[in-house]
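Inverse folding, one chain.
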């Protein structure tokens, strides 16, 4: 599973929004993902890919694409 699919799947699980309705440009806040849900989602992704996102970067994540890009920066092989 690639990073886009995994991010979309976990955001869907955290937000309750169907995978088919999640787009890269979607704002996490529009998907009813507040700080706690965002943190849980990122922690699940960190576990899935065995990497860590810096805390400073975590608070900059506003869209689905931001989450995807953050994981690609940490682990370029996910591209």
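Residues assigned per position:
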């Amino acid at each position: 599973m690639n990073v886009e699919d995994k991010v979309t799947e976990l955001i869907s699980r955290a937000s309750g929004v169907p995978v088919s309705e999640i787009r890269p440009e979607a704002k996490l806040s529009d998907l009813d993902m507040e700080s706690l849900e965002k943190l849980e989602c990122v922690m699940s992704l960190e576990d899935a890919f065995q990497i860590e996102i810096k805390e400073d970067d975590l608070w900059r994540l506003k869209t689905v694409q931001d989450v995807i890009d953050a994981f690609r920066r940490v682990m370029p092989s996910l591209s």
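The CA atoms of residues 26 and 63 lie 5 Å apart. The domain at 3-78 is CATH 1.10.1200.10 (Non-ribosomal Peptide Synthetase Peptidyl Carrier Protein; Chain A).
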